[in-house]
Amino acid sequence: MISRQSNRIEKKFNELKLKKQKGLICYVMGGYPNPTSSKKIITSLIEGGADIIEIGIPFSDPIADGPIIQEASFRALQNGITPDICLNLIRKIRKTYPLLPILIMTYSNILQKRGFKDFMESAKDAGTDGFIIPDMTIEESKDYLYYSKKLGLASVFLVAPNTSDFRIKKTLEVSTGFVYLVSVFGTTGMRNSFNNYTLTAIKKIKKLSSNNNNISVGFGISTPNHVKLMSNIGADAVIVGSAIIQMVNRYKDNNIDNLQNRLKNYVTSLKVACSET
Amino acid sequence: MTKLKEYPIDGKYGKFGGKYIPETLIPAINELEVAYEKIKNTLNFKKELNYYLHNYAGRPTPLYFAKNLTDYVGGAKILLKREDLLHGGAHKTNNCLGQCLLAKKMGKKRIIAETGAGQHGVGTAMAAAVLGLKAEIYMGSIDIERQKLNSFRMELLGAKVHSVNSGTKTLKDAINEALRDWITNVKSTYYLIGSVVGPHPYPMIVRDFQSVIGKEIKSQLKKFTTRLPAALVCCVGGGSNAMGTFYPFLDDNDVSLYGVEAGGLGIRTGKHSATLSVGSEGILHGMRTYLLQDKYGQINDTHSISAGLDYPGVGPQHVQLKDIGRAKYVTCDDNEALDAFFKLTRLEGIIPALESCHAVSYAMKLAKKMRKEQNIIVTLSGRGDKDIDQVIKFSKKYISGGKVGDFSTK
Questions:
Q1: What is the CATH number that goes with domain A4-274?
Q2: What's the pTM value of the predicted model, to 2 decimals?
Q3: What is the ipTM of this complex?
Q4: Domain ranges of chain A
């Protein structure tokens, strides 16, 4: 039985399909640069047109992340951001936006340390809809999947351009909410352009998936043109992270209104591209 | 009952080990696993590796009865497995030659590696040079500062050294950066991990290549006695020299196994690297293991006088051995290690690596409590030339004004 909460993601994708739009998933680092600004940043992303919000919980050793998100993690931890602060942030966002799909993106050890059960229960209680854990493999996911199912949380697994057909099928089976296609060989971070292998990978996973599977493409995407490129090939949604974080990293003065405006305009430009395909 | 030597089972040592890695690395890890199983027992591979180990690196290394040290301590005999005499100056060469040869058989031409103290980096650079491979080494910028000589040696040997400025700028961050490189260049690149850590099959592969230490001990010991040693004592950072020493003895239950972790400035100060002694279960660098971490799961800074033990994780097989009580893990602090450094230097004329001094120090404690006819084997994992600056800096008790004082062991 999938609970109502996990349905927020499904509902969102259904709604987008009816509107013939692609989804825009925006990533932020939880509590960064500070908890108050973080909430304001998320608000501007939503107002700009983000369909789904991914909240990163900073980890000391983020191996899947490039320099931009690494810097944000490092600074967030230096500022004393804890998983609980991030969960509180989710709780607040949830109150304002009861229908918004919210996912947590973090690394296995953050869940492991408190215990998968405890951590996932707390996340659920705060209003989280699911998890994206880049160092969680299908092979090691027994506990994680058990509690995801039990709590009705989405467990988003990742697929890479070099993932075998057999493994893609397995991932499509166990992944709930959506499947996260990593567009490039490398870590998170903006790219100027994409190679053919990225487009091949999108086509391949679309071919192997059914209508029930939502495919979201992430890593490197930062411009409306990127969004169109991925959408035209068949992505159901795009994920944008580093480009947003870089705007936050560069935010040095205290003019949060200015940052909010810039973020909102930027996200709107991406969302417009999502609707033009 | 399953013999301990049969682990890993499904990539795990009990519940530890496994593979917690980004999806991009899964094909590479699977390729490695398949290639290793296929290649490791072929006559051709074994012959070639043996050739390099014997003719190039200088194996077998001696098993030396440290009579002066034994007499000084009083008690059990202390024997030293002289990995410090191996080409490169540490046991790391065993693994570097093995994995570089494996990489070559797999058709990989670019080798990446992480290094802390620089010994694994130097070993990788040497093995890559002799086998005609291109090596790039990731090293924390703080470690480069601490171990300038080794970083320069790597460059001399033709390797490219990347300075890592993220996180704590030490070994764990060098591993993170090497993993990121591997994710980016997964098709062309072989990641040569330097210890019994990382995702399966690395802890197994590194253990297998280091097991030459334990195997040689077993056969060399026959010249001294018909009995198995009473105890094996090794230092543990990631734990590769210890695992290589222990492995052939795992199912010989009469042999006590001791892993000595870096107690640093003392466990209570929090400035140490005693992962097994005071760490807790966690997931890092592709494995489920013990970690030094805070209550939220963030990885802690570590400290040790020896950069080679300065790692917040540990090999998963060690965790299993600790859990079932097969091996005992103890600590030795910076001062005790320094003391052992001077004792071994003066009594035996051997300048040991500070890493190895941790094992020597504990072996001395242990020997005192044991009978004369018992044997303790200490793996002297490396030589101490690289540590001279560090010793000068920290041993004011023995050295003043740049001169060695009247330290005496008589």
A1: 3.20.20.70
A2: 0.96
A3: 0.96
A4: 4-274
